[in-house]
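Quick review question:
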């Protein structure tokens, strides 16, 4: 009979926990492309469209309305002092980045079909954050220029980073559901066994 050998294993581990974490690569490429496109568009608009100028690109549909937004998204906290808005922006970015890193750290547990959507979500959200926050770090203001018409009203202008953030919002729902489903998937034999002789302690795996 072979010698008993104890191997401690954590219960509830997934087989994919041992896969390389490469999700940051496509997410980083998407984020970099969005940030670069956002900054390029802002530079082009700032160079060619005078501040506060309104130019219809698609009549009745789309216009370039060049404004400098010194408030937060959607004009939130515009009455707050500059220092308070800076603290809010930094704290919000830190919380958002932590959330995205959690997805990247757990996303390898998604199925092959689920992963592209998760990386797209992270890339869109991260690219939007970098696009706007990067500009705020330079002169504490964001260049907004895209305005859409809704019925008889022209909506407040935004930018490409705002569009990326807006598109990432509905994608967050399936990504969260992916994580919930991933927690329910377990590799056969990964659940720890309980030994009555050990007083309810986890029994280590034994090999004959």
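Suggested answer, residue by residue:
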């Amino acid at each position: 009979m072979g010698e008993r050998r104890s191997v401690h294993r954590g219960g509830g581990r997934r087989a994919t926990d041992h896969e390389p974490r490469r999700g940051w690569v496509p997410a980083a490429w998407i984020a970099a492309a969005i940030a670069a496109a956002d900054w390029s568009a802002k530079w082009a608009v700032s160079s060619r469209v005078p501040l506060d100028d309104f130019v219809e690109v698609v009549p009745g549909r789309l216009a370039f309305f060049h404004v400098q937004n010194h408030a937060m998204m959607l004009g939130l906290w515009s009455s707050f002092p500059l220092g308070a808005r800076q603290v809010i922006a930094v704290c919000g970015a830190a919380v958002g980045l932590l959330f995205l890193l959690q997805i990247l750290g757990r996303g390898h547990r998604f199925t092959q079909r689920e992963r592209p959507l998760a990386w797209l979500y992270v890339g869109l959200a991260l690219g939007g954050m970098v696009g706007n926050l990067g500009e705020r770090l330079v002169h504490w203001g964001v260049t907004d220029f895209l305005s859409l018409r809704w019925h008889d009203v022209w909506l407040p202008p935004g930018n490409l980073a705002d569009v990326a953030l807006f598109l990432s919002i509905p994608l967050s729902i399936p990504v969260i559901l992916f994580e919930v489903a991933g927690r329910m998937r377990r590799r056969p034999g990964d659940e720890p066994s309980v030994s009555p002789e050990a007083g309810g302690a986890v029994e280590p795996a034994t090999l004959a």
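Why it works: Helices lie at 24-48, 82-106, 115-139, 160-184. The chain is about 50% helix and 15% strand.
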